[in-house]
Design a protein that fits this description.
The complex is a heterodimer.
Chain A lengths: L14 E2 L2 E2 L8 H15 L2 H13 L7 E3 L1 H7 L2 E6 L9 H14 L4 E6 L3 H13 L2 E7 H6 L1 H9 L3 E5 L6 H14 L4 E3 L10 H9 L1 H14 L6 E5 L4 H7 L9 E9 L10 H4 L1 E5 L2 E5 L24 H8 L3 E7 H15 L5 H8 L1 H4 L22 E6 L7 H7 L4
Parallel strand pairs in A: 4-14, 5-6, 5-8, 6-7, 9-10, 9-14, 10-13
Antiparallel strand pairs in A: 1-2, 3-4, 11-12
Chain B lengths: L2 H8 L4 E7 L8 H11 L3 E5 L10 H12 L4 H8 L10 E4 L2 H7 L1 H10 L4 E3 L5 H14 L3 E2 L2 E2 L5 H10 L4 E4 L11 H13 L6 E4 L5 H9 L3 E4 L1 H7 L5 H13 L1
The complex binds pyridoxal-5'-phosphate (PLP).
Pfam families (chain B): Trp_syntA (PF00290)
Enzyme class (chain B): lyase
Function (chain B): The alpha subunit is responsible for the aldol cleavage of indoleglycerol phosphate to indole and glyceraldehyde 3-phosphate.
């Protein structure tokens, strides 16, 4: 590759190590190239930054608190801080990215916004900023996800968005993304595609990571205020495509003392045949415009993943994360549906916070990171990834659990 | 000289290239469909390798892909089916597919088996120019396979010239920015094709996407060397009890 890469910054072709690039058909070239050639200039323009920062503050409610979770810390025998992305407007970290991208779309003169969504959080966050700016919004959502995330579908509609079911393939996030890309191919002039995670062709993974990096920017100064040091020993985040993890890791990527822990959805178990643990099950491949790790058959057909959490039900992972995994800069663990549910109920009872099912996967991994874990992890836990009583462990609580109440009610046998 | 160059040397106008999906409508219909196409007088065949996530394709070709995969089609099976197919099929054949299954098969092994079959060229719409030049292009060249780039009405003149210089065999002019199978404003297509024609490109130009019948085929041919028909052909094969008869009628209607 032509230039050296850091973890923070891909090279000129959008590669993090072996992963990334822009594997797109020619029909998308003009739009993607326009973005690539302009995104950095637009994002770092002073007027853009001023508007972006003020919307994050006044509209999204940032900075989000960094909360020392006392009872959870006691339970696990360490010091646990929760980064409260669940308190963002719309209920998840997704809005950091959609605010950034709507401002970018405005400066590119685009009049129509499309997005894909899994759990519906990114769809809601996109519909929200489109309402804010008075722009047309079309959200593609897998038919199966429309069923299991009904409240978010209603929210998108109330916000004025059109929700189009993706009926191909596994009818989940992967297929919604295919449909959004096809829409973009068919609308090459007036449309901007707001991708919801650090996936897609270059420059999306880098652009979305930059918008989400506000999470770790805040963690640094908040930790300094609380502990005297900007650096935690551990940062934990769940990974679907990897945007909340990219944001929580970003300003620690080049800090080798900070252990980065990414948690994937194991579904019924990594080797059960019903899983979404991409680093454990995937092989290098191309999905949605970038080279990364992809869950696929011997013949290179993308497989249908499974997770209880719609936001993690994705057979790929952003190229930055594939590189963190490949280079061992990050430890990649996984939590099953059952472990995530257990962690959600535990947080609710211990801290009075009902987390999103996605975020509950990150919480579940606290079990495996204890010095002597009573529960073995399916993915090997590197010895140095374990915490001690003196560790400072930041967990990115990417979203709140309102959208998952139907699942939680089922788990409690409340119909 | 390869079959594609030979064809364009012999014939510069009205070239009919038909797209079919390998393993569709039946697992073993790949070669019989190609034979029937050749028999009916098509000049070239684009053979699609089915993929679970065909981004550039509309619902009709997607459905044919899903059907082919459900029939048990794989790249390995395809190369088995193509063993000895040159005893019957002499027209140029181009394999069209997406990068992921090809990478999983092994890019070099794929090229080797494609050259052994032998097919004449490849279309991989999601292989970008940078990766073509730095990594994959030289492998295709080593195995003597043509590689065909796509251009669209949104492609700048400078970029069209670049992609033309990298392409061998022909250049694929996508009629307007869309997925496969959308109806087109043929006047706009006409302007775009005239623009391409004036550029005096190195490669012959074949027009694809939205070409579906005799009028659209003829119009496409008026400013290009020929056209590619995909969706309309796949649609004709849907639910037909008589594959051979349907193919004959479909092609005759276009060529008459
Ligand atoms: C609350 C929450 N966390 C995490 C995710 C997963 O996305 P990512 O991996 O991009 O952070 C989602 C996606 O919908 C989500 O809603």
């Amino acid at each position: 590759m032509t230039t050296t890469t850091t973890y923070q910054q891909p090279n000129a072709q959008g590669y993090y190590g072996k992963f990334g690039g822009a594997f797109i058909p020619e029909m998308l070239h003009r739009n993607v190239e326009e973005l690539r050639s302009k995104y950095l200039d637009i994002i770092y323009d002073a007027a853009f930054q001023k508007e972006f920062r003020s919307l994050l503050h006044d509209y999204a409610g940032r900075p989000t608190p960094l909360y020392f979770a006392q009872r959870l810390s006691k339970q696990y025998g360490t010091n646990i801080y929760l980064k409260r992305e669940d308190l963002c407007h719309t209920g998840a970290h997704k809005v950091n990215n959609t605010i950034g991208q709507i401002l970018l779309a405005e400066r590119l003169g685009k009049k129509r916004i499309i997005a894909e969504t899994g759990a519906g959080q990114h769809g809601v966050a996109t519909a929200t900023v489109c309402a804010l700016k008075g722009v047309e919004c079309i959200v593609y959502m897998g038919e199966k996800d429309i069923e299991r995330q009904a409240p978010n579908v209603a929210r998108m509609k109330m916000l004025g968005a059109t929700v189009i079911p993706a009926t191909s393939g596994s009818k989940t996030l992967k297929d919604a993304t295919n449909e959004a890309i096809r829409d973009w191919i068919n609308n090459p002039v007036d449309t901007h595609y707001i991708i919801g995670s650090v996936v897609g062709p270059h420059p999306y993974p880098d652009m979305v990571a930059r918008f989400q990096s506000v999470i770790s920017e805040e963690i640094r100064w908040q930790l300094k205020e609380k502990t005297g040091s900007e650096l935690p020993t551990h940062v934990l985040a769940c990974v679907g495509g990897g945007s909340n993890a990219a944001g929580a890791f970003y300003h620690f990527l080049e800090e080798p003392t900070v252990q980065l822990v990414a948690i994937e959805a194991a579904g019924n178990g990594v080797h059960s045949g019903l899983s979404a643990a991409t680093t454990q099950l995937g092989k290098p491949g191309v999905l949605h415009g970038s080279k990364s790790l992809v869950m696929q058959t011997e013949d290179g057909q993308v497989v249908e993943p499974h997770s209880i959490s719609a936001g993690l039900d994705y057979p790929g992972i952003g190229p930055l994360h594939a590189h963190l995994f490949d280079s061992r800069r990050g430890a990649f663990l996984s939590a099953t549906d059952e472990q995530a549910l257990e962690a959600a109920f535990n947080l609710a009872k211990k801290e009075g916070i009902i987390p999103a099912l996605e975020s509950s996967h990150a919480l579940a991994s606290l079990e495996f990171l204890q010095p002597e874990s009573p529960k073995p992890s399916e993915a090997p836990v590197p010895a140095n990834a374990k915490f001690t009583k003196d560790s400072t462990v930041v967990v990115c609580l990417s979203g709140r659990g309102d959208k998952d109440m139907a699942t939680y009610m089922k788990a409690m046998n409340i119909q | 000289m390869n079959r594609i160059n030979e064809l364009f040397k012999r014939k510069q106008n009205g070239i009919l290239n038909v797209y079919c999906t390998a393993g569709y409508p039946q697992l073993n219909s790949t070669v019989p469909v190609m034979e029937a196409l050749q028999e009916s007088g098509v000049d070239m065949i684009e053979l699609g390798m089915p993929y679970s996530d065909p981004l550039a394709d509309g619902p009709v070709i997607q459905a044919s892909s899903s059907k082919a995969l459900a029939n048990g089609m794989t790249i390995a099976r395809l190369f088995e089916q193509l063993r000895d197919f040159r005893k019957q099929v002499y027209v140029p054949v181009i394999l069209m597919g997406y990068m992921n299954p090809v990478l999983q098969y092994g890019f070099e092994k794929f090229c080797q088996h494609a050259a052994d079959a032998p097919v004449d060229g490849l279309i991989l719409p999601d292989l970008p120019e940078y990766e073509f030049e730095t990594e994959y292009g030289p492998i295709m060249q080593r195995y003597g396979l043509d590689f065909i780039f796509l251009v669209t009405p949104e492609t700048s003149e400078e970029r069209i010239r670049r992609l033309d210089s990298l392409s061998t065999g022909f250049l694929y002019a996508v009629s307007s920015s869309s997925t496969t199978g959308k109806d087109k404003d043929m006047n706009a297509v006409d302007n775009y094709l005239q623009r391409l024609q004036k550029m005096q490109l190195k490669n012959p130009v074949l027009v694809g996407f939205g070409i579906k019948d005799k009028p659209t085929f003829q119009q496409a041919c008026s400013h290009a060397n020929g056209a590619i028909i995909g969706t309309a052909f796949i649609k004709a094969l849907e639910n037909t009890p008589d594959v051979e008869g349907t193919i004959k009628k479909f092609i005759t209607d276009i060529k008459s």
